[in-house]
């Protein structure tokens, strides 16, 4: 019997349990996917813990907004995909009902793209959420250009590492920010032009040194919190700040520097626009072909170890993406 991860109440990772459930036939416009690998995201742990910003149904809620696998069945009216196609799920806002933590899931055909050639299942599972968030924030929102200096906080996260690669693909200059000096070499190896480790480096002095005193053109921030105003002071006059996450749950301080353009970018924002999805998919596929886009994998777990995988996610010391194989 196929397996599904569910939870009946919010709480720590031990609320997750693996149950057996029969597969369902896809309705019109849907596809059923045999999942091969799942990318873990902060949204998953927030929903499980009960801090997700939107309502979701309990009990028997599912998890997982990202994954990759093989099309197993297609519903009426689906013409762009066939049984046997390798695909990527492009984020599921309804993951509490049809999440990817399972042997099979059924989703709208509009919620998948073809898996780029050259990616195995583990790396494909880690591509979309991080890559599309970084692309959407930097290219669609901030209009990043070649030679722009881009400051990237939480740079060892999946989104941070993808942002380094997106910046390099465009020809911009990615400057990685991390708390820990121990991560500096890994971030340089991942393509950062410079790394600022705040446990020993002064953020503002380091930015002045790297940018020749001008300041950065774009800040990509996954942290927010009380330090947001101070972070904003690293931008040049007329620069752009894009907030893509909230790793610090405390209220953010409002930047008083200026002129500064501020955007709040949410990963699902562009997914209702088929044209934007095509642009993202084309950009990521081009990056895979050229070698500039290659998801960094921190660790791989199995579906039976899903609680352990969530505990590892919440420790926050990983470099890259946590993937669960099915």
How does this model look, in words?
The chain has helices at residues 42-49, 95-98, 121-125, 128-141, 158-170, 184-189, 203-211, 228-232, 274-290, 306-315; strands at 3-7, 17-20, 30-39, 61-62, 66-74, 86-90, 104-108, 112-114, 149-152, 173-178, 194-197, 216-221, 235-243, 260-264, 297-302, 321-325. It has two domains: 3-127 and 295-325, Alpha-Beta Complex (Quinone Oxidoreductase, Chain A, domain 1); 130-264, Rossmann fold (3-Layer(aba) Sandwich). It contains ten helices and 16 strands. The protein has 326 residues and is of the alpha/beta class. Helix content is 28%, strand content 27%. The strands form three sheets. Strands 3, 5, 6, 7, 8, 15 and 16 form a seven-stranded mixed sheet that branches. It has a six-stranded parallel sheet with strand order 11-10-9-12-13-14, with helices on both faces. A three-stranded antiparallel sheet has the order 2-1-4.
What can be said about this structure in brief?
The chain is of the alpha/beta class and 326 residues long.
In CATH, what is the homologous superfamily of the largest domain? Answer: Medium-chain alcohol dehydrogenases, catalytic domain
Q: What portion of residues is helical?
A: 25-40%
Work out the count of structural domains. 2
CATH T-level fold name of the largest domain: Quinone Oxidoreductase, Chain A, domain 1
Radius of gyration: 20 Å
Q: How many strands in all?
A: 16
Measured by DSSP, the beta-strand proportion falls in 25-35%
User: What is the overall number of helices?
Assistant: 10
Mean pLDDT: 94
Please give the CATH class of the largest domain: Alpha Beta
Query: N- to C-terminal separation?
Result: 14 Å
């Amino acid at each position: 019997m196929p397996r599904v991860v569910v939870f009946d109440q919010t709480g720590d990772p031990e609320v997750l349990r693996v149950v057996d459930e029969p597969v369902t036939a896809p309705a019109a416009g849907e596809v059923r996917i045999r999942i091969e690998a799942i990318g873990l995201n902060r949204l998953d742990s927030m929903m499980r813990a009960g801090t997700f910003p939107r309502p979701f149904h309990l009990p028997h809620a599912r998890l997982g907004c990202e994954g990759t696998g093989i099309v197993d069945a297609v519903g009426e009216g689906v013409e762009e995909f066939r049984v046997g196609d390798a695909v990527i799920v492009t984020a599921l806002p309804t993951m509490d009902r049809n999440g990817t933590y399972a042997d099979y899931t059924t989703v709208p055909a509009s919620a998948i793209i073809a898996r780029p050639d050259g990616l195995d299942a583990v790396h494909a599972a880690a591509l979309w959420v991080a890559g599309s968030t970084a692309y959407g924030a930097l290219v669609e929102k901030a209009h990043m250009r070649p030679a722009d200096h881009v400051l990237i906080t939480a740079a060892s996260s999946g989104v941070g590492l993808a942002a380094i690669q997106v910046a390099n693909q465009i020809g911009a200059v990615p400057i990685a920010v991390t708390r820990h000096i121990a991560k500096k070499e890994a971030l340089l190896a991942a393509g950062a032009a410079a790394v600022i480790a705040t446990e020993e480096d002064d953020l503002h002095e380091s930015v002045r040194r790297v940018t020749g005193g001008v300041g950065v053109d774009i800040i990509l921030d996954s942290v927010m919190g009380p330090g947001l105003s101070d972070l904003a002071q690293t931008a040049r006059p007329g620069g752009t700040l894009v907030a893509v996450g909230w790793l610090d749950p405390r209220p953010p301080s409002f930047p008083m520097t200026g002129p500064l353009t501020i955007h709040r970018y949410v990963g699902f924002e562009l997914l209702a626009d088929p044209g934007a999805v095509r642009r993202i998919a084309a950009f990521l596929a081009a990056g895979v072909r050229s070698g500039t886009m290659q998801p960094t994998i921190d660790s791989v777990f199995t579906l039976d170890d899903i609680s352990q995988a969530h505990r590892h996610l919440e420790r926050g010391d990983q470099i890259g993406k946590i993937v669960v194989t099915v």
